[in-house]
Amino acid sequence: MKKSMKRVAMTIAALGLSFAVGVTSAFAAPDAARAGKGDKDLLSPDRVLNVAHRGASGHAPEHTIVAYQLAKKMKADYIEIDLQMTKDGHLIAMHDETLDRTTNGTGLVKDHTLAEIKRLDAGSWFNEAHPDKAKPAYKGLKVPTLDEVLRHFGHSANYYIETKAPEIYPGMEEKLLKTLEAHRLIGKHAKRGKVIIQSFSPESLKKIHALNPELPLVTLLWYENQQGHITKRELDEIKTYAIGVGANFDRIDRAYVQKVRKSGLLFHPYTVNEKPDMKRMLDWGATGMFTNYADRLTDLLKKNCK
Ligand code: G3P
Ligand code: CA
């Protein structure tokens, strides 16, 4: 995508917010979008961040190097990485606390050493679950450690990392910060927004904030069977440690998104896979979103720049 087009795409979320004050639709206003800010600051509310949820997980086995590579190829702004911790204290890229769904192993991650987990196949399940997308190359893929992912992509990618189940992994936050520092992804040499940390655990985020107040944090919310609702008081509390909120997109409405945005927080809904839903989120003022199909969001943003 040309730089100018990318800049236009990334202003759409800001226009979604301006809907509240009278703009008919972000998607109907590409010219107004061109008047937006530059594309330097990843955390600007004028940008729409394309976050590849578990990598390009709609196309390849989630949380594998292959899925992250594909996400980059699809022009995702961020690779999303869920973290679990092994019995011997290694941070690995995995969504579930158990090995069962995404490998040929069984049991809890915390009960297995890294060496044991490295013997597992993290790709064949995908071929079986998605025969239409299966590839021989996915067979035998390994579970990567966070360190391996960061070594592989270095500063060529941006990382949106989630502390999963931090209550069962003591020391997870310290280990995460140490790993990021070792790769110079945080600290004085790093570009702001190179790494975003997210969690459903406010305790985990507050701990990280105390350890490193510069690190951008996003608090995740989950509305199970009820319509999402958030108060000014809750938003004010979140703002004491985080720069944004993420919530399940199918339980929120325009008023919710605009309330979050007006509070000054970014808003990144998850997991938005269909283009009509992506359009709706942008129209409501989302400043990015998690998707298994980074290619679809890239395509949508490109089309709306033309
Ligand atoms: O991190 C945003 C979204 O990924 C939260 O849901 O369960 O896919 O980690 P989950
Ligand atoms: Ca996640």
UniProtKB/TrEMBL annotation:
GO terms for biological process: lipid metabolic process. PANTHER family: GLYCEROPHOSPHODIESTER PHOSPHODIESTERASE, GLYCEROPHOSPHORYL DIESTER PHOSPHODIESTERASE. Residues 48-301 form the GP-PDE domain. It comes from the Bacteria. This is Glycerophosphoryl diester phosphodiesterase. It comes from Laceyella tengchongensis. Keywords: Signal. InterPro entries: GP_PDE_dom, PLC-like_Pdiesterase_TIM-brl. Pfam families: GDPD (PF03009). SUPFAM superfamilies: PLC-like phosphodiesterases. Gene3D superfamilies: Phosphatidylinositol (PI) phosphodiesterase (3.20.20.190). One of its GO terms (molecular function) is phosphoric diester hydrolase activity. Residues 1-28 form the signal peptide.
